[in-house]
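Sequence in, structure out. Go.
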Amino acid sequence: QVQLVESGGGLVQAGGSLRLSCAASGIAFSDNAMGWYRRAPGASRELVAIITSGGNTHYAESVKGRFTISRDNAKNSVNLQMNSLKPEDTAVYFCNAPALLETAEYNYWGQGTQVTVSS
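Output:
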């Protein structure tokens, strides 16, 4: 019974900020790296940020220096602080566990949260 619930999206002007949150259940949260993905209109889903179980972070070049991923294992949550937002950041944002997505038995996605950045 996996649940991934994203929240925090909204409509902001370019240069603004948003903080996304993801509450996860039904997975071994603290043992897994967690990532944020996004799907822009007409595009495929892409991985934009990862935080490992040990707290190491990695970012797509397009968001490096602007986005910060963090996790709170006590709450089984992963967050994405997004600053200096650009119109090209407009997308539906999802959280997930990259390693679990590579297994045949796991193919779950939450509903995502919409981020819209106006110019």
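Check: The longest strand covers residues 18-25. The mean pLDDT is 97.
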